[in-house]
Amino acid sequence: MLIAVFAQYNEQYGFGELPSDNSQTYGESEVLYGEQDKLTWTPASTNLQNAWGRFYATIAYANIVLDHVNTPAMTTANRNGYIGQAKFLRALMYFNLVRMFGGVPLVLNEITSETQAYTYNRETATAVYTQIEKDLTEAAAVLPVSYTGTDIGRATSIAANALLGKVYMFQNKFTEAENILATVSATAGTLLPYDQVFGLGKDNNRDIIFSVQYLGGGFGEGNTFARSFVPQPSGTTITAVTGNSNNSGTPDLFGSFEAGDNRLNTAIGVYRSGTLVYYYAKKFIYQSVAANSEGDNDWPVLRYADVVLLYAEALNENGKTAQALTQLNLIRTRSNLDAKSGLSQADARTTIRHERRIELCFEGERWFDLIRWGNFVQVMQAHKTNFVPANGLIGNVTPNLALYPIPTREIQLNSRLTQNPGY
């Protein structure tokens, strides 16, 4: 189960960050991720096929656990732990799938034959979200609040509730989101200084609610962030490996940090090569990484800061703007920025959205945020007009890009699957 998760979160930024105004490719990374950067993906795109396969592989493993968990003799606590973790991971995979592709096949039991695998229809996005909510609610009911020792890093009840709050936000269920996020915000963690959240040896800190636990040392469980994010022309001057310049920030992102924001130096590194300037994802880089796939730092899936900003957003959408600003200012004052006060609901909305862009940059959130806010065409059209990427032009920005296409191979294998509009 975890191998598929490790592989996918090595590249999830390619679907949640690169298509947005936050990130871009360069010549050396165009072959791998140019389609995602330029919004020119097709149903035949290899990266989409790989993502689909990894999500469903993880779901398959979770289903096997859930279908057989009652067979072996074990304590109730252990059984509940397996059930809760499997349901959490299944929900997380379906959350990625529904955000990327819309309604998808809901596979909730072990598949025992190839014929069976091709009998599933696409469900509606609403049905997928309903199942996600069910899995997370049931996971939260049986998972512990925290772990000790070698179990640290497993999904907790707090992680399940935090993800549930995020799932509500993606459906504009602001009342439900406010209620669950209020509980999570009060119990989940602590806002740390930004430079204490990221970096080697800082994993599983108080800001981290759930992360993908990468492990260097030759076990085949390390990340590829250094290879992916370091500017290629820098050679080994930034890390011990040469990078491919994937997930490099845009000048617009760099310029969107307010003066005095102490997150900038942790989040973004600047490297110049001739006329090119690379604003690379410094927050995921450390000098001593041993090899291309041996990164030892984790990938944050859910952070306390993310929860605080989602809670602020839910409060504001529910007409509680003053309370929303209180939450927002937890982030701003921690970042050495002036607190906001007296804003209208509309101005608070704009400010909260901006803060999410800055706080979570490079973490695979921006594109999905733009989609759920319904302003991605406007934002990306402005980005396309005002900024010429370092390697080629952005394609047509059309509403159908809110969903990725169902991979061609999946439709060829299962004729019951229909394609998303516009592809």
Automatic annotation (TrEMBL):
Alphabetically ordered keywords of this record: Cell outer membrane, Membrane, Signal
Give the SusD-like N-terminal domain ranges.
29-169
Name the SUPFAM superfamilies for this protein. Answer: TPR-like
| Keyword flag Membrane | yes
Spell out the Pfam families in the cross-references: SusD-like_3, SusD_RagB
What InterPro entries does the database record attribute to this sequence? SusD-like_N, SusD_RagB_dom, TPR-like_helical_dom_sf
Q: Which residues are in the RagB/SusD domain? A: 262-423
Supply one GO CC term from the record.
cell outer membrane
Places the protein is found: Cell outer membrane
Query: What superkingdom heads the lineage?
Result: Bacteria
The UniProt similarity line reads: Belongs to the SusD family.
This chain's protein is named: RagB/SusD family nutrient uptake outer membrane protein
Q: Which organism is it from?
A: Pedobacter petrophilus
Lineage per the UniProt record:
Bacteria, Pseudomonadati, Bacteroidota, Sphingobacteriia, Sphingobacteriales
